[in-house]
Specification:
By secondary structure, this protein is an alpha/beta fold. The chain has 23 helices and 19 strands.
Length: about 575
């Protein structure tokens, strides 16, 4: 088996293998050749080649998101590393263990005008769990290193001892950085300076790097369950909001108990992956009628919870954020073993516990309260469901109707990826089959890597993958299709409304050339030609009938991925959506 001749490159590969990290996404380059040699020549690793570094990082992120395990992204020096930043930020806010490994120039070649050279050390400082800046080996090309950086060699030095000190330092850093990724689910960064030659290889691994054992420690913080139970049992209006959440992560027995509590309403989102017929999956459909009612203040007070419990990741609904920031709960607990965001500016307690452990302990001491909190708001829910059905039967073909048809037609057990902006917000309004696993990059809520994330996530999925995306999000990440790892059962639906439809929904929209150019970004690009470039079958629909016809064959077995382009009227979509909230009110 081949190994790079550079000790630090050998060490990185050894540490990753020892930690059971198998998947490596490599962007071609020269400076990272020692790493590429090490990873690709060891059959233990599954390696993927993605040219575009921004796409590669999101591809790796999608894989890590699906596997719930660290995945490595390797790049060369210079601006290549900067292209990883959007995915690093997403991983940071979504707690995804993305391991960034960057090859660097030696320190003495930084800021002297050398090509492909930038200040790479601790580059992601504000959005990273741990930055390991390894020291340069001095047994590799000793003459060159001594020539340009003689300060590394003290008087009367012994080369082997100096290298041993470097090895010990690098081992310690590699232990720290990989522990951060594995234990804390942090994105991490390993930066390694390499001097030329870069392509020399050896047949035997002579190093014996030291790897600390990984120990998962339970949270040592004491939780006063009696106190929590006292508050729970004293509140007649309790609200639970579940944000971004992994599929099947909360025990269904606990969900059933919560669903039948008269003093509790459970708000879920399309990204919650949590289902029960008694839950409230369309938050905005509850809040919007309150906003528009002449009895707004009275209704708001009736919905205002005494106890708010939140869990999971970031929340999509802007309406619930605005509502709870104004009508604050007396108590707000966030349940998460790692961190708690004060999203509603009302946080009173961070309960550092796994969701199931929390419910197991809390519900032991629960007793039923007499309350009409659930029944009152369930009546509101039933009303908007009825009104929504009527509304759908009356409206013309637009984004709203297209999403209703698409959401009701997705086959069971699909892995569903949603792009940001309009896509995830429309999906919030409709019911999805409980067998679906739903993902969306809500850490930073950017549109920049949806396609790459979905394709990366699909690699190890037992089930087929569907990506629903808007036209701007899709074109923005079109390089996500530039790889050879697209499965034949990959399905993509692009809602092509000719621009950034979200900006017509947001306050401040105006019909002007300025708005269309600099906000909405009107476009008339041809998706069919892009599909031909990347060998993807293309289907098209422009009304209710053609959409249903296209969907009848869209999910059928095929010899290549399939993309369905759904064209909707740019100037009508926003009116139909905004009128919906008036209609159900």
């Amino acid at each position: 088996m081949k190994y790079s001749s550079i000790p630090s490159a050998q060490s990185v590969v050894f540490h990753c293998k020892s930690r059971g990290i198998k998947n490596v996404v490599i962007s071609p380059g020269s400076r990272n050749a020692p790493l590429t040699i090490g990873f690709t020549n060891d059959p233990y690793f599954s390696c993927y080649s993605i040219v575009d570094e921004r796409s590669a990082a999101f591809f790796a992120l999608g894989m890590a998101q699906h596997l719930k395990k660290p995945v490595i992204a390797v790049c060369t020096s210079g601006s290549a590393l900067l292209n990883y930043y959007p995915a690093v930020a997403e991983a940071f806010y979504s707690d995804i263990p993305l391991i960034i490994i960057s090859a660097d120039r030696p320190a003495y070649k930084v800021d002297i005008g050398d090509g492909q050279t930038i200040r790479q050390e601790s580059l992601f400082e504000k959005h990273i769990g741990y930055s390991a800046n390894l020291k340069q080996d001095i047994t590799h090309t000793t003459h060159t290193v001594k020539k340009y950086e003689p300060s590394l060699f003290p008087k009367d030095y012994i080369l082997e001892q100096l290298q041993s000190q470097i090895q010990s330092y690098n081992d310690a850093e590699l232990n720290n950085v990989l522990k951060s990724a594995i234990i804390q689910n942090n994105p991490v960064h390993i930066n390694i300076p390499f001097e030329e030659p870069l392509y020399d290889a050896v047949e035997d691994l002579k190093l014996a790097p030291f790897c600390d054992p990984i120990i998962f420690e339970k949270c040592s913080e004491e939780i006063n369950w009696d106190d929590l139970s006292r508050i729970w049992n004293s509140c007649e209006k309790k609200m639970l909001i579940i944000g971004v959440n992994n599929p099947d992560s909360i025990n269904v027995d606990y969900l059933d108990i919560l669903a039948n509590d008269d003093s509790l309403i459970v708000f879920t989102e399309v990204t919650s992956n949590t289902y029960n017929q008694n839950f409230f999956p369309s938050i905005d459909s509850i809040i919007a009628p309150i906003e528009k009612s002449k009895d707004k203040e009275l209704l708001a007070k009736e919905l205002q919870p005494e106890l708010l419990i939140t869990m999971g990741g970031l929340i999509v609904s802007k309406k619930i954020k605005a509502f709870l920031r104004k009508y604050k709960p007396k108590h707000h607990w966030h349940v998460n073993s790692k961190k708690a965001y004060d999203t509603f500016f009302s946080l009173t307690k961070h309960i550092k516990a796994d969701e199931n452990w929390f419910f197991e302990n809390l519900l032991k001491k629960r007793f039923e309260l007499q309350s009409n909190y659930y029944s009152k708001w369930n009546k509101v829910k039933q009303k908007y469901l009825s009104r929504r059905k009527t509304y759908i039967s009356e409206i013309p073909f637009t984004d709203f109707l297209a999403f209703q048809i698409i959401c009701s037609d997705i086959p069971e057990n699909y892995q569903l990826h949603l792009a940001n902006s309009s896509t995830v917000r429309y999906a919030q309004l409709f019911d999805l089959d409980p067998s679906l696993s739903v993902y969306c990059n809500r850490g930073t809520s950017g549109i920049d890597g949806s396609t790459s994330t979905a394709i990366g996530s699909s690699i190890h999925s037992v089930n087929p993958t569907l990506l629903i995306t808007g036209d701007l999000s899709f074109f923005y990440d079109s390089n996500g299709l530039w790889n050879s790892y697209k499965r034949n059962d990959l399905r993509i639906i692009v809602i092509n409304n000719g621009g950034g439809g979200i900006f017509r929904i947001l306050p401040g929209m105006e019909n002007s050339q300025n708005f269309e150019t600099y906000f909405e970004t009107v476009q008339d690009l041809e998706l069919k030609k892009l599909c031909a470039l990347f060998k993807i079958n293309h289907l098209e629909a422009g009304d209710k009938k053609t959409l249903k016809t296209a969907l009848s064959t869209f999910y059928a077995s095929s010899k290549s991925p399939v993309l369905l382009e759904v064209k909707t009227p740019r100037l009508l979509n926003d009116k139909i959506l905004l009128t919906y909230f008036d209609f159900i009110s």
